[in-house]
Amino acid sequence: MVDTPNSHGLNKAFGNEDAPMPLFKAWLEEAEITEINDANAFALATVDFTGQPSVRMLLLKGMNENGFVFYTNMNSHKGDDLKGNQRASICFHWKSLQRQVRISGSVSQVSDREADAYFETRDYDSQIGAWASLQSSTMEKRGDFNERLFDFKSKYPKGSTVPRPDHWSGWILLPNEVEFWLSAPARLHERLIYKAQADGAWDQYLLYP
Ligand SMILES: Cc1cc2nc3c(=O)[nH]c(=O)nc-3n(C[C@H](O)[C@H](O)[C@H](O)COP(=O)(O)O)c2cc1C
Fold first, then answer.
1. What pTM, to 2 d.p., does this model score?
2. DSSP count for the chain of H helices, then E strands
């Protein structure tokens, strides 16, 4: 079978989508088969009030036509950054496929209802962890955390309903640029970028590698 390139002359893996979300979904689904674990892992870059960027890995926990959802402690380093500056960028790298996707945009908080629904799906220990961890605060000794875990397990015994802490919720990144990158021999890589237009449509551009 001949591998017909897409309409831009790129590898057929780029498809011929008018918008980035269907292509992202297709690439993620492939990565879920080929990656050894955590195909949904991505790096999130945020910027603090001094302009200092910071990056860390997270897991994608939802996506829809509007954006990409992840959950975390709202009082963490990233939480503070995002409350002050909603602009953020995320990057997926799938080694098994030699592909990268970079997404930039701005975040908003998911609704309490959505966060509650996701929190309910987490296992008991993760729910307790969300209460006990003062994520990104300094900790004098590990025993302090163990004590907090013990206290919250007493407060919310296994089998009871563990409510979602107010400080634990999700963000949705609404993209304005999405770049798809595919490795090619001799570093002659292929890149396709989608840019959001004011009317909601997406323009597409090729980039030199
Ligand atoms: C593969 C991987 C997935 C992770 N997923 C999450 C996540 O979904 N949510 C989260 O809060 N931290 C997650 N972490 C931990 C973060 O990288 C980070 O250590 C933590 O959120 C504190 O970051 P901050 O101090 O910048 O706020 C993950 C770490 C790794 C390595």
1. 0.96
2. 5, 9
Ligand 1 centre distance from Cα of residue 135 (Å)? 9
Residue nearest to ligand 1 atom 7, measured at CA: 58
Domain carrying residue 176: 12-206
Count of structural domains, the chain: 1
Strand residues in 32-161 grouped as ranges (E): 41-47, 53-59, 62-63, 68-73, 87-94, 99-109
Q: CB within 6 Å of ligand 1 — which residues? A: 38, 41, 54, 56-59, 70-73, 76-78, 135-136
Decide if 91 is inside a domain.
Answer: yes
- For the question of residue 87 being annotated catalytic, the response is no
| Tens-binned pLDDT, residue by residue, of the chain (209 aa) | 567 899 999 999 999 999 999 999 999 999 999 999 999 999 999 999 999 999 999 999 999 888 999 999 999 999 999 999 999 999 999 999 999 999 999 999 999 999 999 999 999 999 999 999 999 999 999 999 999 999 999 999 999 999 999 999 999 999 999 999 999 999 999 999 999 999 999 999 999 99
The rounded distance, in Å, linking the Cα atoms of 118 and 164 is 9
Identify whether 124 is part of a domain: yes
Nearest C-alpha to atom 31 of ligand 1 is from which residue?
A: 57
CATH of the domain at 36: 2.30.110.10
Look at residue 1 and tell me if it is in a domain: no
In a domain, 119, yes or no: yes
